[in-house]
Backbone:
């Protein structure tokens, strides 16, 4: 068995068919954009829309890959922006006004015991912070007698039947609304057993999606650098005209920073995401930082903030890595000065005192606006500094 993710469009079509509702959405392949079809769709469905990247990417909201409440006049420009970023599949839907407190969550996953079901009356992008609200049950694959407080029995049993008949291995609807018309999925993710593609009626292998996208020059360059290094180096371009540029060390720290930026509503301002970790040497750090700086210099944003941050390292030498970063900065110092780039630093670990002092002296000497902190300032506080700078 091979598990794979369906497009959100196909998942919602399947849901609509099972629940007896008519799903309204348009799948868009940017390689074959049908502007007449998009116009006809918008003529029928109001003037406010949601546009998403539909390529099985997790945390899309926090990565800035979901645009909510887009007016019809701006739909084509949003589609073009995603196409320019290299994404191929998009989803266009009418925007559904609602209260955040009405958002709910349900997930089903196949296990040796049967189907593990988790429900919460507190759905949405911050579902992980509501673990204490979860109701969990496990049902046998043919058992339609189980109930969950908060989900009508007929809807729960329909989802269980759908899960079995479509040979799903995972189902998540987050968030969804319960209205007089039934269950309305605002976001849905289905994983399937691909061996079932030859006998199910709801989906085919053409509905499988992967997170892959066409790589930009800087993304390709980082992949090349990473392929020759034992260190971990990754980079994703989110918004080439973003205002906030991230030079982050450590996967955990990168997630915290992105979450904090999202909590401030700044996800659309974030130009890139990724990390350098695993004790890269000075040369590797220099090559990686140089790609971030290229993003800074080519962005059309009027404001530009570079956040150099990470957790408190166990073995990455802060002084050595900062030498690589300073080298990359110094090669482009006149352009960075001319564009008014501001630098905020928060780092800790071996040789942090020397590294932070070295970075601070360089930025001060080159008259780059900066704030440099050690572990006495938290990552959350450092992101707060970015928020203040970007206002």
Residues:
């Amino acid at each position: 068995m091979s598990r794979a993710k369906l497009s959100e469009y196909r998942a919602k079509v399947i849901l609509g068919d099972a629940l007896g509702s008519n799903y309204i959405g348009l799948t868009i392949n940017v390689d074959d954009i049908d502007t007449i079809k998009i116009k006809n769709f918008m003529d029928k469905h109001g003037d406010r829309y949601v546009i998403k990247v539909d390529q099985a990417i997790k945390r899309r909201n926090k990565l800035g890959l979901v645009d909510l409440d887009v007016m019809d006049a701006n739909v084509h420009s949003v589609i073009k922006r995603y196409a320019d970023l290299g994404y191929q599949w998009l989803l266009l839907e009418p925007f559904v006004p609602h209260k955040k407190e009405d958002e709910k969550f349900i997930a089903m996953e196949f296990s040796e015991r049967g189907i593990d079901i988790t429900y919460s009356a507190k759905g949405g992008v911050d579902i992980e912070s509501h673990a204490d609200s979860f109701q969990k049950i496990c049902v046998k694959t043919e058992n339609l007698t189980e109930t969950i407080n908060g989900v009508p029995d007929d809807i729960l049993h329909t989802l269980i039947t759908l899960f079995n008949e479509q040979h799903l291995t995972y189902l998540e609807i987050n968030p969804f609304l319960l209205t007089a018309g039934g269950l309305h999925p605002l976001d849905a993710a289905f994983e399937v057993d691909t061996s079932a593609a030859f006998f199910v009626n709801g989906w085919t292998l053409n509905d499988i999606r992967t997170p892959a996208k066409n790589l930009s020059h800087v993304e390709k360059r980082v992949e090349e650098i990473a392929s020759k290094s034992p260190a971990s180096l990754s980079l994703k371009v989110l918004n080439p005209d973003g205002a906030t540029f991230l030079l982050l060390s450590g996967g955990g720290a990168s997630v915290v920073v992105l979450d904090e930026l999202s909590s401030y509503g700044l996800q659309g301002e974030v130009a890139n995401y990724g990390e350098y970790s695993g004790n890269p040497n000075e040369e590797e750090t220099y090559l990686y930082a140089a790609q971030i700086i290229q993003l800074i210099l080519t962005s059309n944003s009027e404001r530009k903030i570079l956040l150099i941050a990470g957790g408190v390292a166990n073995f990455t030498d802060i002084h050595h890595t900062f030498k690589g970063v300073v080298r990359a900065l110094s090669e482009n110092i006149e352009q960075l000065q001319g564009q008014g780039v501001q630098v905020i630093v928060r780092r800790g670990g071996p040789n942090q005192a020397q590294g932070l002092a070295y970075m601070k002296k360089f930025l001060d000497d080159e008259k780059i606006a900066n704030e440099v902190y050690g572990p006495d300032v938290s990552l959350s506080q450092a992101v707060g500094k970015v928020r203040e700078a970007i206002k």
